[in-house]
Amino acid sequence: MKRWVPLVVGALMVPASVTAFGFSVYGDELETALSSSPAVPAVQAGPVPVSDFVAPLRMEPPAPVLLSAAVAQQAVRDLFSAHAVKGITFAPGTASLAGRGEDVRRSLAGVLRNATGSVTLVAHAWNGETASHRCDVLAMERAGLLRQYLAEQGVDKVVATRVIVDPVWGPPTDFGPQIDVLVS
Description:
With 184 residues, the protein is an alpha+beta fold.
C-alpha cells in the first residue's frame, strides 16, 4: 500500500467524525443556523400578560396666554388695519354686517377672549341713516348684537357700549357705519 493512502483516509475521516459529533451535540442550533429558511417561533395560545402597563397621562391643553389691556388694544388696531377697516362695519340703515365685517368680528372674538381689562364697544350711526331719525337706537342694536356674539364666543368680560351719532355720512370708502372697540 502506498504511504499517502492512510493520510487521505485520515483527512476524510477526521472532519466527518467532527461533523457527526457536532450534529449529535448541537444538532438543533446547527440546523437552524445552516438552514436557508428562517426559523418559525413557537406560537403560544392565550392572552399576553401585561404586568408593567402604565396608563397614558391625559394632558390638558396649555392655558391661553392672557393679553394685557394695552397689548389687546394694539392687537385690535392691528386686526382692523390688516382688514383695512376702522371697525366692524355695517350696511347703512341696517344691523347687517357689511364688507369684511364677519371676518373682523370672528377674529375680534379670538383677540378679546384672552384679553384682560374691560371692553367698550363704541357704536357709530350716521345722522339720517334711518327714516325715523332714531339712529341712536340702530347703533345700540348693532352694539347689542356684537356684545351677544362676543359672549357666545367665550368673551366673558363685561362689555360696555356707547353710542355716537355722527353728523355726516362717511365717505364711500368707509363701507358703512362701524363699531369701534376699546380695551382698557
